[in-house]
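Why show two proteins at once? Because comparison is the fastest way to build intuition. When a single record is shown, students tend to memorize it. When two are placed side by side, the eye starts asking what differs. So, the first record is below.
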Amino acid sequence: MDSYNIVGVLGRGAFGVVELVRDFNLKKLAVMKTIHIKSMSTKNVKEAIKEIQILQMLNHPNIIRYYNSFQNKQSFHIIMEYAIHGTLENFVNKCSQTSNYIAQNCVLNIFSQLTMAVDYIHKMKIIHSDINPMNILLTGSQGTIVKLGDFGSSRILTNDKIIGENWCTPCYMSPEQCCGKPLRLKTDIWQIGCVLYYLITSKHPFYAESLADTISSIVEGVLSFSEKITFYDNDVIMLLHELLNRDPTVRPNASAILSNPFILPYVLNSNCHWPKSGRKVLNKNY
């Protein structure tokens, strides 16, 4: 711990804390995720070890970078890249306070970078299983570089699908997760579809007052679209419906999404500067 100076707390969870630290070896700010293993079951300790093992495997410009890890009798500590511009959720909240919608160029730039990260892990047979706006981070000088983080719920495929617990953020659960069915790569595709919906509408998909009602909405496919969709091309809305198909076998894979003619330009120029919002007057008659 002598190599790190704690600057502040970024978040807390059931089994630990995430802190902003100054890394004296790297000579820059980093994130330290501390997992308190003393109060954890053997199963949860194994899950924490698995997260570290997966992070060590990953090296992609759109995934939060792993730097180091160490442990003592009380805790595991994981040192990772710090995304200076915060979460996608914070970004969308700020945009919704200042404008009516997020410009399509911005939406597709974020979405394409997220999909590139998913395509990368899927080629390594890794399922993230908890893709949501809190686990998507923004960095770079202008906040235009997208990073997928938090692999605490991720799994490595040993077959075409994984049987076992597959809990994630409720509004972003896939129908198969809601029904306790095995995880598969297409589970992540549903979740990036939910993120696309969130970028378009500034609202979490399938939100309901109770968990039971949320699950019911997901399983039944009850999803409302706001008047904001009028600001986006039909190709974008059609893609959204493809991603949120309740049948996972029908959803496109990440590689197919990236090769889509209207997504491909953003893939080829993923780090370009994009406008953050639009200010058109909403059509009240829609």
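Second record. Ask yourself what differs from the first in the token line.
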Amino acid sequence: MAQIRKVTLIGAGGNIGPWILKALDDDPDFTVSVLARQSSKSTFPFHVTVHRVDDSYPDEEVLKAFQGQDAVVCSVNMGGVTKQIAFIDLAVKAGVKWFIPAEFGGNKAKAQFGVKTPLYDAKEAIHKHLIEMEKKGLSWTAITTGAFLDWGLSNGFIGFDIEDKRAKIYDSGDEQWTATTLPTIGLAVARAFKKPEEVKNRFIYIYSTRTSQNEILKVFEAVTEKKWDVEHIKFDDEIAAGQELLNQGNRLGIIPLILSHLIRENVGADFTKDVEADNDVLGLPTQNIEDIVKEVLAWPEERIEAARLV
């Protein structure tokens, strides 16, 4: 097939979007443009074409932005996941060749073993729709990353409060899981387009490191030269509390449910037990957890602020 060169990115201002944008923009083989909501306050490099559309993503405005593009990458947040079926249909209508959905995260192949969430149900519907659109000439690649490791260490999502030197350890804390840093996720997207036959119409699996909460705690204590306060928590209790928050209309209740798919035992969180990682296919580096922790501790304040959960 013809090489992918023109790429439109949806969600370029979120958590992983800036890193996907950077990886594509840094590679001279790609011309990247951005589809952004009118209300978005995100800014982008001056040379990148930005298509501002109404916040409701009207079909005619999105279709116009997709015209002439080879690929669309979607990195919208949880609130935008369900809009992807419309994006996929419009991509097909515009003649787009490739679609990468906002699948970045847990091992969907084992999602049935974890607690059910609306997010995973929505992703299942998107996956089925992508398979259906293969009949109309659309190719796709979904990227399984595990937890966003540097992001999740910075903002406490994975259980570590850097400022107060406190850790929440779930269950034994020895459960092994795979995770990926934001820069590596960005590289994976760019390099996937250069290996179309190897990644076509399937999930690919990438990671930066394989670790556990207890290993991370040990590294944090060694690097900061401080003994951290540790709270041991049962995942079942945290999930129940999260579900109660969701029942009350508090969307933050989904956080422990999502986390349980990323670091809990027996839900495919360590996908290296089940599949062969695609790091070698894409030429992606791995890192040791000590280097990742040191990088996060050196983050500038503006990056820490951008990663905050609330």
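One difference worth noting in the second protein: Residues 92 and 133 are 8 Å apart (CA to CA).
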